[in-house]
Structures are given as structure tokens and as C-alpha cells.
Design brief:
The complex is a heterodimer of chains A (314) and B (303). Chain A is mainly α. Helices cover 78% and strands 0% of the residues of chain A. The longest helix of chain A is centred in the middle third of the chain and has 36 residues. With 303 residues, chain B is mostly helical. Chain B is built from 10 helices and no strands. The chains are: A mainly alpha (314), B mainly alpha (303). At the A-B interface, helix 1, helix 6, helix 7, helix 8 and helix 11 of A face helix 4, helix 5, helix 8 and helix 10 of B.
């Protein structure tokens, strides 16, 4: 077990490291490009032209002339040793401060959506499987396949149109009150909820076809008892993995949804960074999102043993 | 000639050949049983036709700006009304079919070829090759959803070709992972071993035996993935990162239309419905194929 844990943590750190390298090299691939942006944001106006001399001065100041791997090694060593992710070009503040302020709203939004996915998705999936091929099952299946086809950002705008602009029930955008959380969380949750309903349904149907269920029926146990005590526990094991994968989708989907609702999270920070060519912010946001995604999946892998005691780690 | 010289068991054909010879009738029979699948197939043909001919037959030039007609309600001259620049919404939406379908199909085709090759090589050779390729796949899968494409587009800028490159790079890994598993599951079967004993080169074994016999789940994944990629294209263009202004695209139409959500909601509703219907067609087709070819659901979940 300890051996397994050490190996998995090693792999986790390596993957985060590799992902950070990939993101860093991708975003720093254009030499001088970032120097021009820094000059626009700090020395001259956004529309003004940047002189060759300015670019050279800035390149020298931020070591942009160094080979990429040296820049990466510098960035990484400062990030790991001092927690210094660089300085934002647009805001002129440490990136670490911006990111740590943005993580909480993003986790709040993604967490609320995850809660909706679990509370709505799992019961509806079980209900649909138990009532296989009845009218309600057909309705749920139809609704899920349509929900999977909706673009989340369009759903967000439709929710704003209906609940904010026409009915005047909820605020259009903003952050701070629970009312602000409702629309973005629903918009973000619709797609993964539909996926989870389908996975739960399939898994539940497969479990109900197992011999031990037939045996339980033959024993004369009540239907409810079989569903609750025998089928659900086994059917939900594969669902946990899917929940982990879709947590990543929630984080990625939050990028667009946060943008619509002016939600001050990582996604908004990322998009503002992309628009302003603020490379340090963009790199850090991507690394943080990837790290959160990997860590959640790592925890889910570890939880497997708790959920299903038959699984042992080598 | 003695019986011992026969190397190949003659009665036992490779599954791909079996599929070619015997199952085509079965495929047609299964499709006949599914009216929903047929309707979607018909709708797909209509969509492709619209995609090809729309720029020549739409009533208005989708890029023609006429500010005096801006944000009009639906009327007999403008079926869905006009957008904030006075462009005809009906013409814009129809011309958007081409952009979405073209990018999505090219992206999925590129990702499928790249992923299939990598997955096949990794699964067939195993060992160090597999270890290196699998770690690469894991690395790309660590970027959830559109994050990778978003980072890449931020660097290389908007454009159709850039969009295809960014989305291909973010999608290829799921095909590689699926293909690798498929190849590993069949590479020790008898007909592959016989091919090896008969002295076929590795390339030929992969191209003639492994790929044809493992490609079905990959094709189902690709069908479902087209819908997923259309959603990603729309999302990235909505953020203003994907398609440059001037090319009709649903996501960017919604992106600019959202400023006028209160006064001209059709600017958002119509392109959104177009996206939903197109993605729905590919989702139903993919799921139909999955049922017909009897592939387990959790095997092909687009990531």
C-alpha cells in the first residue's frame, strides 16, 4: 500500500511537471512576442507601436533572450522553492496572489455544480434503470441526449434571458450572494448531469442482470430491499470514475461560464490573461487547473479501496 | 501435400473479413429497424447539402453590413430578423453550417488517424515504446476539455487552420487510448499469431489485421466526438478565440449577440438551436451505431 501510494504520488508530480513544461513551452514559443506585449502594457499605450530598443530592454530585464529551457528552469525553481509564479503583466501584481484569490470562487462554482450532478444525476439514473422502457425512462433518455447536445454557454444565456431579464427573479451576473451562484451552477451542471444519468442507468441495468440479484429475487427479498441494499452499491462503483473525469470538465467549462456571469474565478482570470497576452497569468492558470484535475482524480483512485473493499492496491 | 503443411485454419476468417462478407446485410437490417437513426441519417444529408450550397443560395450575403436594418424583428423579408450590424440572421445561420461541419470533420479525421496510429503502435509493440507513448497520451489527457486548445489558440491566434490544429492536438489522445486497449485485447489472438508466423511485416500486420479489426469502437467514438468538437468550436469562438470575424460561425454569432440579449434575443436563440440540432444529429447517429455494432457504452465516452 505505501509502496503503491509513493509510486502514484511520484507519477502525479511527474505529470503535473510535464504538463507545466508543455504549457510553458507552448506559451513562450514566440521569442520577443511577450516582450512586445509587456512594452505595450507598461511603457506605451495598447495601440502604439513599440520600438526595437524597448523590446531589447525588456528582453534583457526579464531574461527573455535566454533559451526557453533556462527560462523554464528559472520559473519552476522560483515556483517550487519560493511559491513565486511570476508577475502579472496587466495587473502588475504577483500571479500567486491573483490565482489564490481566484481559486475559491472557481471551486465554489465547480463544487456546487458537482453537488447538482450527484443529487440529480444518480437518483434519476437509478429511477430510469428501474423503470426500463417505460414512458418515464424513455422521457429521461430523450431529455439526456438533448441535454448533452446543448452548448453550456448558450444554456447560460437562455437562463439569464428567462430568469433575469423576463422574470426578474435572479441577478444577471456578479458574485457574493447565493442568488448569484444559482444560474451559473445550473448552466455548468446540465451536461455532466445528463452524462451521469446515462452512466448510472447503464451500470444499474448491468448490475440488475447479475446472478446474485436473481438469487436475491429467488430468496423472496422485497424489490426495494434488493435495489437499495444489493444493486445500488455495486452499480455506483464505475460512476465514481466518471465523476472524477467530469470534475475536470466542470473546471474547463467554468472558463466560459465564469466569463458570462462575470464570476471572479480562474476562468475569468485566464480569459482576461489570454486577451491581454499576459503570459505568466495564462501559464499559471493552466497549470493550476491541470493540477486540480489530476489531484481530484488521484483522490478518487485512492477512494476506490474505501468504496469497493475487494480492490487492493499492489 | 500432407495436412500438416496447412498453416492457416481456413474456416476461421479474421473478424474484419467476416464483417465485410456477412454483416453488411445485418447492418442494413439493423438500420431498417431504427426509424430515428434513419431520420438522423436523412437530416445529416440535408445538413451536408446545406453546408455545400448555402453560400450560393441564401437570400442575403451573410457578410453584407447594412446598419439601417440592424436588430430587426422577424419579417417576410428577413425570416429570423437581423443582427446588430443589419446582417440577415437566416443567411448567417445557414452559412454557419459549413464552417462548423468543415472544421469538426477535418479535426476528427486528423485526430482519428493520429490517435489510431499512436495507439496501434503502442499496443502492438508494448514495452518501452508503449510506456513512452502512453505517458504522452496521459500528458495530453491531463488538460481537461477545451483548456489545451484555448492555450494554444491564445498563442497562435484565431483562424480556421489554427482551430483545426489546436482541436486536433487536444483530441487525438482519447483515440490513442481507446485504440491501444483494443489492439492489446486482440494482438495475441490466433489469426494475428498466424500472420506473424507466416512472416508478415509488422506494418502489414497492423494495417491489414489490427486496424480493420479494432476500428469500429474508434469510429463510433469519432461520430460522437464530432458533436463534442462542434461544441468546442462554438465555445472557443464565443470567447472570441476561434474564428476571425467575417466568417459566419454560430459561436461567434452568440458571442456578439449576447450584448443585445434583451432587445434582440433571436440573435442568441437561433444560432444556439442550430448548434444543438447539429450536435444532436451526430449524438443520435453515434449512439445508434453503438447499439447496432453492440459496443459497450463506457468503452466509448468522448473525454
Amino acid at each position: 500500500m505505501h509502496h503503491y501510494l509513493a509510486k502514484r504520488i511520484g507519477f502525479l508530480l511527474l505529470t503535473i511537471l510535464a504538463a507545466s513544461a508543455l504549457a510553458f513551452f507552448l506559451l513562450h514559443a514566440v521569442p520577443g512576442g511577450s516582450a512586445e506585449t509587456i512594452a505595450r502594457h507598461t511603457l506605451v499605450g495598447l495601440e502604439d507601436s513599440v520600438s526595437e530598443q524597448m523590446i531589447q530592454e525588456i528582453s534583457a530585464k526579464y531574461n527573455l533572450g535566454d533559451p526557453l529551457w533556462e527560462q523554464y528552469a528559472n520559473w519552476l525553481s522560483r515556483a517550487v522553492l519560493a511559491g513565486d509564479l511570476g508577475t502579472s503583466i496587466i495587473y502588475n501584481t504577483p500571479v500567486l496572489k491573483l490565482v489564490s484569490l481566484a481559486i475559491v470562487p472557481t471551486l465554489l462554482l465547480a463544487g456546487t455544480s458537482m453537488l447538482i450532478v450527484i443529487i440529480v444525476g444518480i437518483p434519476l439514473g437509478i429511477y430510469s434503470a428501474v423503470h426500463e422502457n417505460q414512458l418515464s425512462d424513455l422521457f429521461i433518455r430523450g431529455a439526456t441526449i438533448i441535454s448533452i447536445s446543448f452548448p453550456a454557454f448558450w444554456i447560460a444565456l437562455m437562463l439569464i434571458l428567462i430568469f433575469s431579464l423576463i422574470l426578474n427573479l435572479l441577478p444577471v451576473a456578479g458574485y457574493g450572494t447565493p442568488a448569484n451562484l444559482i444560474l451559473p451552477a445550473i448552466a455548468l451542471a446540465i451536461h455532466p448531469t445528463a452524462v451521469v444519468i446515462r452512466i448510472v442507468r447503464t451500470s444499474m441495468l448491468e448490475t440488475l442482470g447479475q446472478q446474485y440479484i436473481t438469487f436475491a429475487i429467488a430468496k423472496g427479498l422485497s424489490f426495494g430491499h434488493i435495489i437499495w441494499n444489493h444493486a445500488i452499491k455495486n452499480a455506483l462503483i464505475p460512476v465514481v470514475t466518471v465523476l472524477g473525469v467530469y470534475f475536470g470538465h466542470l473546471l474547463a467549462g467554468a472558463v466560459i461560464i465564469e466569463n458570462i456571469f462575470a464570476w471572479p474565478g480562474l476562468g475569468n482570470l485566464l480569459i482576461n490573461g489570454v486577451e491581454g497576452h499576459d503570459i505568466p497569468v495564462v501559464t499559471s492558470c493552466i497549470v493550476v487547473i491541470v493540477a486540480m484535475f489530476l489531484i481530484v482524480n488521484f483522490c478518487i483512485d485512492l477512494m476506490y479501496h474505501v468504496i469497493d473493499p475487494r480492490i487492493h492496491y499492489e | 501435400m500432407s495436412e500438416t503443411t496447412i498453416i492457416f485454419p481456413k474456416s476461421k476468417r479474421a473478424p474484419a473479413e467476416e464483417f465485410r462478407k456477412g454483416s453488411r446485410n445485418r447492418l442494413v437490417r439493423e438500420i431498417r429497424k431504427r426509424p430515428g437513426f434513419q431520420a438522423c441519417l436523412a437530416f445529416l444529408i440535408i445538413l451536408v447539402t446545406i453546408g455545400v450550397i448555402a453560400p450560393y443560395v441564401v437570400p442575403y450575403d451573410p457578410t453584407a453590413i447594412s446598419l439601417k436594418d440592424k436588430n430587426q424583428d422577424p419579417s417576410s423579408t428577413h425570416l429570423f430578423g437581423t443582427d446588430f450590424l443589419g446582417r440577415d440572421l437566416f443567411s448567417l445561420t445557414l452559412c454557419g453550417v459549413q464552417t462548423s461541419l468543415l472544421i469538426a470533420c477535418v479535426t476528427v479525421a486528423c485526430a482519428l488517424v493520429a490517435g489510431t496510429l499512436v495507439g496501434c503502435v503502442a499496443g502492438y509493440y508494448g514495452g518501452v515504446v508503449d510506456e513512452i507513448l502512453s505517458r504522452c497520451v496521459d500528458l495530453f489527457l491531463a488538460f481537461p476539455g477545451i483548456i489545451f486548445a484555448l492555450a494554444l489558440l491564445a498563442l497562435i491566434g484565431a483562424g480556421i487552420l489554427n482551430m483545426i490544429i489546436a482541436l486536433t492536438l487536444s483530441q487525438w489522445a482519447i483515440y490513442a487510448r481507446l485504440m491501444r486497449g483494443q489492439v492489446i485485447s486482440i494482438k495475441n489472438l490466433e489469426y494475428v499469431q498466424s500472420a506473424r508466423t507466416a512472416g508478415l511485416t509488422n506494418t502489414r500486420i497492423m494495417m491489414q489485421h489490427l486496424v480493420p479489426n479494432t476500428i469500429m469502437p474508434v469510429i463510433i467514438l469519432a461520430t460522437l466526438d464530432i458533436g463534442h468538437v462542434i461544441l468546442s468550436i462554438a465555445g472557443l469562438s464565443f470567447l472570441g478565440l476561434g474564428i476571425p470575424p467575417g466568417i459566419p460561425e454560430w459561436g461567434s454569432m452568440i458571442g456578439v449577440g449576447k450584448e443585445f440579449l434583451r432587445t434582440a434575443p433571436l440573435n442568441v436563440i437561433v444560432p444556439g438551436l442550430a448548434i444543438t440540432v447539429t450536435v444532436l444529429v451526430f449524438n443520435i447517429l453515434g449512439e445508434g451505431l453503438r447499439d447496432i455494432l453492440d459496443v459497450r457504452e463506457e468503452q466509448v465516452i468522448p473525454a
